[in-house]
Amino acid sequence: MSGEEHLLWPVLRPLLSVHEHVCGELDGLDRRVRQLAREDETTRRLMTVPGIGVVTALTFRHTIDDPSRFRNAATVGAYLGLTPRRRQSGETDTNGHVSRWGDRLLRTYLFEAASVLLHRTRRWCALKAWGLRLAKRNGMKKAQVAVARKLAVILHCIWVDGTVFEWGKEMTASPPPDPTPRLQA
What we know:
The chain is mostly helical. The chain has seven helices and two strands, in the order ααααββααα. It has helices at 9-39, 41-46, 54-64, 74-79, 104-119, 126-138, 140-161; strands spanning 84-89, 92-98. β1 and β2 form a beta hairpin. The longest helix has 31 residues, at 9-39. The N and C termini lie far apart (98 Å).
C-alpha cells in the first residue's frame, strides 16, 4: 500500500472534520461560561472557596436562585440532598445514606469540590483540617459528603453576607514538654 491511500481515509476524514468543529465550538462555549463568571460579582466571590470553580459556582447560583428562600444556611444542605436519611418509628431512630433529594448535578459538583479540597488543596484551612479528621474516623466518602454539605452552607453565607472565603490561620500546638527530668536543688 505504499503510495496509495488507506481504505479507511474516506470514512475518517469527515469524522476528523466533525471532531475539529466540535472542539472549536466547545472552546467557544468554555470562553462564554468563563466570561459569565467574570461579569457576575457574586459568582466571583463564590469562587474564592477552595475547590469551587466556574461551573460549580454558576450551577450553585442558578440552582439556589434566591438565597432568601432559606430561613438559615443549614437548610441548603438538606435542600440539595446532602443530609442523612432518617427513619423513625417508635423507639427506633436510624440514620441512612444521603437523601439524594434536590439537584443531582449540583450535589455531584459539590462532592467533587469537597474531593478537590481534601486531596489537592495544599493551603491549610479549618474546613480541610476538619474534613481530614472526619475521614480518619468515618472514612473518606462520608467525609467528602460532610464537607460538600459544609461547602453548600459556606457558599450560601458568602452569597447572603457579601463576603469572601477566609482561609484562617493554622493553629500551632504548643511545643511538647521536655522529656528529660529536671533535678531539683
